[in-house]
From TrEMBL:
Subcellular locations according to the entry: Cytoplasm
Single GO MF annotation: phosphorelay response regulator activity
Domain OmpR/PhoB-type per the UniProt entry, residue ranges: 132-231
Pfam families: Response_reg, Trans_reg_C
Protein name: DNA-binding response regulator
Keywords per UniProt: DNA-binding, Phosphoprotein, Transcription, Transcription regulation, Two-component regulatory system
Source organism: Paenibacillus glacialis
Length: 231
């Protein structure tokens, strides 16, 4: 069985060592780097199953590292940062992170979140894609196996969460999903006042799909209720 490799990118050696200590107890293989450019090199040079990134790193910050990773790779990304505002968290999630924890942190909680993200990633890359069909609506094509989206033949680059939201909605046209429904099904976690996270992902998804006030929307807002696919 392939040993799971986790990348830890943090310029605070004490924190990186603490994370590694707890994850090694779980049997994971760890790669530690201290700046953003080293993180990109590690992703390109190794088979990384999950990345834990600080935001404020030398070289490239965590946001830019995530942007570059998401151009080619789909592994889960967890931000671990001293930046604690809601805007920071939403920015991290919109950039393509799957989870966001703030420092100081409980190492056991981080381990639990790592395990949860890896389970979900393995499900998405394994048997759960079997039997899921390619969705074609108008000029929009959504392929769950390749995790690609094209609109009138043009490739649309989505983050993993944006893809999951779109596939969920498009797979149930006209069904209305509340923000709570979307969060629990896409993030696989209990919903705790995470409506802004869903709202921001929907907003960026609409932008990537080329929607504006003068065009028919693929994703329709049902005010006070939730969202539905308008295909």
């Amino acid at each position: 069985m392939k040993r799971i490799t986790i990348l830890i990118a943090d310029d605070e050696a004490e924190i990186a060592d603490l994370i590694a200590l707890h994850l090694e107890k779980e049997g994971y293989h760890l790669i530690k780097v201290s700046d953003g450019r080293e993180a990109i090199h590690a992703v390109q040079s190794h088979s990384i199953d999950l990345a834990i990134l600080d935001i404020m790193m030398p070289g490239l910050d965590g946001y830019e590292v995530t942007r570059q990773i998401r151009e080619k790779y789909h592994m889960p990304i967890i931000f671990l940062s001293a930046k604690t505002s809601d805007l920071d968290k939403i920015t991290g999630l919109v950039m393509g992170a799957d989870d966001y924890m703030t420092k100081p942190f409980n190492p056991m909680e981080l381990v639990a979140r790592v395990n949860a993200q890896l389970r979900r990633s393995m499900q998405l890359n394994g048997s759960t894609t079997e039997g899921q069909s390619v969705l074609e609506v108008g000029g929009l094509t959504i392929d769950p196996e390749q995790r690609t989206v094209t609109l009138y033949g043009e490739n649309i680059v989505l983050t993993p969460k944006e893809f999951d939201i779109l596939y969920l909605l498009a797979g149930h046209p006209r069904k209305v999903f509340s923000a709570e429904n979307i969060f629990e099904q896409v993030w696989g976690e209990a919903y705790f006042e995470s409506g802004n996270t869903v709202m921001v992902h929907i907003r960026t998804l609409r932008k990537k799909l080329g929607e504006d006030k003068n065009k028919n929307k693929w994703i329709k807002t049902i005010w006070g209720v939730g969202y539905t696919f308008n295909g």
